[in-house]
Structures are given as C-alpha cells and as structure tokens.
C-alpha cells in the first residue's frame, strides 16, 4: 500500500480535516485541524520457502496519523473537546476494515495516544496497520 492511497481515502471521507498530507513531505502551515500521515513501522514474520525459488513472508505495515488540533487558549479561537472525537470518529469509520485491494488485509486500529502537547497545539496519534504477503520468485 502506498501512503498516497491512505491520504486520498482520508481526504475523501474525513471532511472535518482542513488539511491531510504526508507527514514527512508536507508543506504544513497553520491550517488546523490537520492529519499528517506517514508509514511508521514494518514487521515481517520469518520467511518460508514455497517450492523451488519461491520465498514468502507475511508483512505488517503500520501507518501513523498525527492529528494536529489547536487548543482553545484565547477568546478569539473556539475549540471543544468534541472536535477530537469528531476527527477520530471520521478516521475510524473511513479506515477500520477498509482494504486497498485483494493483496492487503483490512486496516485495523492498533493504538492511539497523546503524542505531543505544546502550548497552543495538541497532537493525537492513531496507528493503523494492514497485512500483505511479500512473495519473491528467484
């Protein structure tokens, strides 16, 4: 799965985000709320030999989605706790159970946590994973 596939899905099905971009190549500015998406982890089971010259591994790819949200720190900005709930509800509805294609398993929510907390900006991180088979023929 390409990160761009995930970004496109979030852009299409999560209208509460003002910006959805790749976390590593973003031209991020002060547009909030934002979803910054990046591959964050790859795990693979030991390979198996399936016939002459055919090697196969089950690979789990995890993507992290960083939700950037302004804190209500002054009277000119309004935000409420439900904003984060709305954003995470939309993400989970769009991604949990979704399969990019027949080569990938369904996406699963595998964890979430408060990632960074700075004056003015909160960063909530959600991790989603999918499995695929890596098959190499030599």
Question: Could you describe the 3D structure shown?
Answer:
The protein starts with a helix and ends with a strand. The protein has helices at residues 3-13, 81-95, and strands spanning 19-22, 34-44, 48-49, 54-70, 108-118, 121-137. The chain is of the alpha+beta class. The chain is elongated, with a radius of gyration of 18 Å. Strands 1, 2, 3, 4, 5 and 6 form a 6-stranded mixed sheet that branches. Helices cover 19% and strands 45% of the residues. The protein has 2 helices and 6 strands. A hairpin with a 2-residue loop joins strand 5 and strand 6 (121-137). The mean pLDDT is 88.
Give keywords:
19% helix; 138 residues; 6 strands; six-stranded mixed beta sheet; 2 helices
Dominant shape:
elongated
**H-E string:** HEEEEHEE
Helix content: 10-25%
Could you tell me how far the N terminus lies from the C terminus, measured between alpha carbons in angstroms?
A: 23 Å
Structure summary, number of beta strands: 6
Structural class of the helix and strand makeup? alpha+beta
Radius of gyration, whole Å: 18 Å
Instruction: Give the integer mean of the pLDDT values.
Output: 88
Please give the largest β-sheet: 6 strands, mixed
Into which percentage range does the β-strand content fall? 35-45%
Total helical elements: 2
State the assembly state of the protein chains. single chain
Poorly predicted runs are none
Q: What is shown here, in short?
A:
This protein has about 140 residues and is an alpha+beta fold. Helix content is about 20%, strand content about 45%. It contains two helices and six strands, in the order αββββαββ.
């Amino acid at each position: 799965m390409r990160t761009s596939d995930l970004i496109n899905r979030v852009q299409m099905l999560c209208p509460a985000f003002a910006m959805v971009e790749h976390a590593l190549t973003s031209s991020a500015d002060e547009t909030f709320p934002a979803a910054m998406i990046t591959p964050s982890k790859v795990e693979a089971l030991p390979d198996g030999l399936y016939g002459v010259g055919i090697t196969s591994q089950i690979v789990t790819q995890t993507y992290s989605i960083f939700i950037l949200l302004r804190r209500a720190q002054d009277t000119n900005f309004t935000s409420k706790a439900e904003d984060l709930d709305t954003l995470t509800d939309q993400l989970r509805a769009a991604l949990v159970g979704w399969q990019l294609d027949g080569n990938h398993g369904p996406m699963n929510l595998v964890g979430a946590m408060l990632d960074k907390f700075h004056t003015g900006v909160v960063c909530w991180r959600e991790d989603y994973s999918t499995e695929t088979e890596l098959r190499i023929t030599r």
